[in-house]
């Protein structure tokens, strides 16, 4: 069973439930953040955003980098 990378750094032993889509670390539920990516359909100029996006799971470090870089 894969272990949570972030828990191992603090000498805890937790099973991973997912993998970060950005860096590939195994993560437990405590260290996982969900990021919802918008989905659009159609061809320009008739493009519309769907009401539900695609959920993506990322680690705390990567989510902080995505948010920080997205607003610079």
CA-based gyration radius: 16 Å
Largest sheet: 2 strands, antiparallel
- What count of helical segments does DSSP give? 2
Strand content: 25-35%
Low-confidence stretches: none
Q: Approximately how much helix is present in the residues?
A: 10-25%
User: Which structural category fits the helices and strands?
Assistant: alpha+beta
As laid out across the biggest beta sheet, the strand order is 1-2
Number of strands: 6
The end-to-end span amounts to 39 Å
Instruction: Please trace the helix and strand order, writing H or E for each element.
Output: HEEEEEEH
What is the residue-averaged pLDDT?
Answer: 89
General shape = elongated
Describe what you observe in this structure:
- A hairpin with a 6-residue loop joins β1 and β2.
- The longest helix has 11 residues, at 60-70.
- The protein is elongated.
- The protein is an alpha+beta fold and 72 residues long.
- It starts with a helix and ends with a helix.
- The strands form 3 sheets. The chain has a two-stranded antiparallel sheet with strand order 1-2.
- It has helices at residues 5-9, 60-70, and strands at residues 18-19, 26-27, 32-37, 40-43, 46-49, 54-59.
């Amino acid at each position: 069973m894969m272990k949570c990378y972030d828990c191992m750094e603090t000498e805890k032993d937790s099973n991973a439930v997912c993998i970060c889509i950005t860096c590939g670390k195994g993560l437990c539920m405590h260290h996982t953040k969900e990021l919802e990516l918008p989905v659009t359909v159609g061809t320009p100029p008739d493009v519309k955003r769907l009401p539900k996006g695609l959920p993506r799971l990322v680690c705390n470090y990567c989510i902080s980098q995505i948010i920080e870089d997205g607003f610079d």
